[in-house]
Amino acid sequence: MKSVAKCLAVVAASLVSCALPVLAQAPDYPSRAITIIVPYAPGGQGDITARVIAEHLAPLLGQPVTVENRAGANGVIGIDAIARSAPDGYTIGVVVASHALSPALMESLPYDPVTSFAPITTTALTQMVMVGSPTLEADTVGEFIAYAKEHPGELAYKSAGPGSNSHLFGAWFADAAGIEMIHVPYKGSGDSMPDLMSGVVQMGFDTLPAVQGHIDSGQLKLLAVGGPDRSPQYPDVETVAEAGIEGFAANSWGMVLAPAGTPDAIVDKLNENIVTVLNMEAVTARFTTMGASVVGNTPAEAAAMLQSEVNLYGDLVKRLAIETNN
What we know:
The chain is of the alpha/beta class. It is built from eleven helices and ten strands.
C-alpha cells in the first residue's frame, strides 16, 4: 500500500509540474478589454503613444484596448492608479521620462518608480535639441560657450517650469560647460517661445517636434542636438557631446508599464504584441513625424533603462540643486 501511495504521489506531482507551464502561459489572456492609463492630459507625447498602440494592439489581441487619461499632480495620480491596479494584464500604462525624474524632486510618492512596476517595453526616444534666439551672437555650442564666458550671468535659458526636464538639461549644460546662466521658468514650452524668439531669453532645450517649425522658419537657431546621436532631420548639426560636453544626453522617452507582480507570461505576451505594433511601417512613420525613433526593447532592457534614468536624474538633481515649486 505504501508503494502504491508513493507511486500515486509521484504521478500527482508529475501532473502538477506538467500543468504549471500551461498555467504560466496564460492561454486565456486576454479574455476581456484592456485599459491603458495615461497619467497626462490628452495631446501630449504619452497620450499620442498610447492611442497609437491601442489602435493597432486591439486587432492583434482580439480584444478592445481603450485609453484612459488620468492627469494631475505631474502624473502622480495616474501613475499611482497603474501601480494599484490588479497585476493581471488588463490595466497597463504609458509613462514618459518625467516618471524617472519625479522621485528626485518630490519628497514622497505613493509608489516606487521602479519596484512598483513591471516594464513591458520602451516605446520610443524623442530628441531634445538646444535652440537659441535668432538674435544670439552664436551659431554653435562652442560659440555659445565662448560668448557666455565673455558675458557671465547675462545669458538666460528657458524651461517649461521648475523641475521640468528642460530645467534639468539647461542646468546640466551650464554646469558641464562651466558657464554662469540665469534660469527663467515658464508654465510650458509654448509659453516660452515668444521670449526665446525675441531674445528675452537666449537658449533652451526642447523636443524637436515642438520647435522644428520655428527652426525651419528661421525664428530659432538650432545650436545642437541633445541626444547621443545626430538627428536624421539635421544630419550636419553636431550633438552637445560632440561639441565637447562629454556624457551629455538630453532625450525624452516613452515606456509601457504594468503593475508589479504581473505574471511574466502576460508581460511577455504584451511585449511581443506591442513591439509588433511599434515596428509596423505606419506606426514607425508616425513616430518619425513626431521626431521620435522607435525602440521596442525587451522587458529586461526596459527595466534596466528605467533604473538607469532614475539614477541619472537623481544624481543630477542632487548635484545641481534642482528644485520645484510643485
